[in-house]
Structures are given as structure tokens and as C-alpha cells.
């Protein structure tokens, strides 16, 4: 009774959830006939690095599209910080800029400069006139240059994007997303088709940015080994279903989801990726 009275007399203005993303029994279809996702349950802690792994066509990219409101689920509920992701919803529209999204295609404008691409991330903070004429305040330009240093692209701000290497283009895409000042960073296969060294450089960059900015990073991979190396938890998706959720603690792979797979099958899955 005393505890309840203390709560009533307090001046709470906000409520926060440790679980920044929650998906409950998600089913999704592109044509209302065949389900791409089937009964997915995901719970992602704020400020963590979460990976989604699976083969092409397993539904990984669809999960990211649901998180940023680009798609709506056919069944089930999704909440991003208590808000249902829907681009037609006013509450979600207000928070959309807090979700940085890097698609597989990267979404860069190839014929403009590195700096101009990065400044696109600041557009939600500009007035309508500033946004229309791309008139960026000096403090936004300085912030973009600061982020350029963070992603190790200093000196290349005036280079056109089409002149960059694959790894450099990914750095620009990350910088543009960070320019949004997001709380969530979604990245779809950002290290695919990169050599081993460059892939780890990009992953190190994201891990560093995640810690500096207290981001929740959610990344799609096809490589289970690199996912386990960087993520706190890894969800394995197969044919639209989450078949496994694992992580690494010390020298042990920890199974967070009791399912049909045996310990030997999990280790075999990891070994297969190690030999690629």
C-alpha cells in the first residue's frame, strides 16, 4: 500500500522498456497466399547487437522491413519502443528518423559526393525550405565531417560515390545512417561480397559506433560465424521460421531457445560456416 502511494505521488514523465523490439507470432506474406515468415517471436534488448542469419529467401530481409515500417505483418504484433511500425501512423512517423536503415543495395546516390550523401541523414531535422533546397546549417555540416572521421573517410568528402571501393561505399552508408542520430541501426547483408579483412573492418566500425552511441544494432548475415563473433544474440531463420537463437559466452555457444536441434547439429552448423 505504501509502495503504491509512493508511485501515485511521484512525477514520472516517461516509461522505458528494456526490450526495444518485440515481435509476437509474426506471419507475413507478399501475396496473401504464401507466408514468407511463419510464427516468428523476437525480443531484442536495448543497446545490444542482434544478428539474423539464414539462407537467401529465408525471410531475413523481410524482418528488417517489418521493423522499419516498410511492410506490415499479416498476423501477430510488432512493437518498437511501444509503437507499432506503420508508415501511416503519426506516432511512428515521428520516430522514423530514429531508425537507421541500410538496405542491401546501400541506397546511395552515386553521382553526388560522399559528404552530400551523408548529409541526407540530417534531412528530417531541417525545415521544409531547408530540406527542399538542401540548405544544411553549418553545425550539420560539421557533424557530418565528424562522422566522416569516425568511419575513416576523412579527405574523401568531395569524392563522388561511384569512384569508391565496395568497402568505402559501405562506410558512407553507415555514416549516412549515423547522421540520423538513430537509436536503432538496421543493416541488411552489409558485409556480403566483401573479402574477409574488409568485412571485419566494417563490422569493427559498426561495433565501435554501437558502443559510442548506445545503439541497438540489428544486422542480417548469411555467415553464422561472423554473426556470432559480433552479436550478443543470433537468430537463425530457415524457411520463414526461427529455428534457433544462440550466443557466445566465453568458450561456450549458449542456446537461448529450446528447440528440435541437437547440440551436435548446432555445432555442425557453426563448423559449416567456419569452412567457407
Please characterize this protein's 3D structure.
With 276 residues, this protein is of the alpha/beta class. Helix content is 36%, strand content 24%. It contains 10 helices and 10 strands. The mean pLDDT is 88.
The rough form would be described as globular
- Whole-number average pLDDT? 88
- CATH architecture title: 3-Layer(aba) Sandwich
Roughly what percent helix?
Answer: 25-40%
How much of the sequence is in beta strands? Answer: 15-25%
CATH superfamily, by name, is P-loop containing nucleotide triphosphate hydrolases
**Under CATH, the topology is which?**
Rossmann fold
Strand order of the largest sheet: 5-6-7-3-8-9-10
User: How large, in whole angstroms, is the Cα Rg?
Assistant: 20 Å
Structure classification: alpha/beta
- Give the tally of structural domains: 1
The profile of the biggest β sheet is: 7 strands, mixed
CATH level-1 class: Alpha Beta
Break the fold down into its secondary structure elements and pairings.
Blueprint: H1 2-9, E1 19-29, E2 35-45, E3 49-53, H2 60-67, E4 75-80, H3 90-95, E5 99-102, H4 114-119, H5 128-133, H6 138-150, H7 166-179, E6 184-188, H8 196-213, E7 216-221, H9 224-230, E8 233-238, E9 241-249, E10 252-255, H10 263-274
Parallel strand pairs: 3-7, 3-8, 5-6, 6-7
Antiparallel strand pairs: 1-2, 1-4, 8-9, 9-10
Amino acid at each position: 500500500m505504501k509502495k503504491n502511494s509512493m508511485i501515485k505521488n511521484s512525477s514520472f514523465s516517461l516509461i522505458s522498456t528494456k526490450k526495444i523490439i518485440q515481435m509476437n507470432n509474426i506471419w507475413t506474406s507478399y501475396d496473401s497466399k504464401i507466408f514468407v515468415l511463419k510464427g516468428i517471436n523476437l525480443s531484442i534488448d536495448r543497446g545490444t547487437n542482434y544478428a539474423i542469419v539464414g539462407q537467401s529467401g529465408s525471410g531475413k530481409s523481410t524482418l528488417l522491413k517489418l521493423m522499419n515500417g516498410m511492410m506490415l505483418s499479416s498476423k501477430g504484433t510488432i512493437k518498437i519502443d511501444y509503437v507499432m511500425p506503420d508508415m501511416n501512423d503519426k506516432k511512428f512517423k515521428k520516430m522514423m528518423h530514429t531508425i537507421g536503415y541500410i538496405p542491401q543495395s546501400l541506397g546511395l546516390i552515386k553521382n553526388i559526393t560522399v559528404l552530400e550523401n551523408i548529409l541526407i541523414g540530417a534531412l528530417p531535422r531541417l525545415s521544409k525550405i531547408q530540406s527542399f533546397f538542401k540548405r544544411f546549417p553549418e553545425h550539420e555540416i560539421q557533424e557530418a565531417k565528424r562522422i566522416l572521421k569516425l568511419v575513416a573517410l576523412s579527405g574523401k568528402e568531395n569524392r563522388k560515390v561511384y569512384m569508391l571501393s565496395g568497402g568505402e561505399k559501405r562506410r558512407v552508408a553507415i555514416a549516412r545512417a549515423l547522421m540520423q542520430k538513430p537509436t536503432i541501426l538496421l543493416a541488411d547483408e552489409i558485409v556480403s561480397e566483401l573479402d574477409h579483412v574488409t568485412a571485419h573492418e566494417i563490422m569493427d566500425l559498426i561495433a565501435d559506433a554501437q558502443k559510442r552511441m548506445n545503439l541497438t544494432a540489428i544486422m542480417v548475415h548469411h555467415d553464422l560465424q561472423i554473426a556470432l563473433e559480433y552479436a550478443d544474440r543470433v537468430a537463425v531463420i530457415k524457411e520463414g521460421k526461427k529455428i534457433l537463437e544462440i550466443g557466445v559466452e566465453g568458450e561456450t555457444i549458449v542456446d537461448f531457445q529450446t528447440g528440435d536441434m541437437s547440440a551436435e547439429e548446432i555445432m555442425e552448423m557453426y563448423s559449416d560456416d567456419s569452412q567457407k
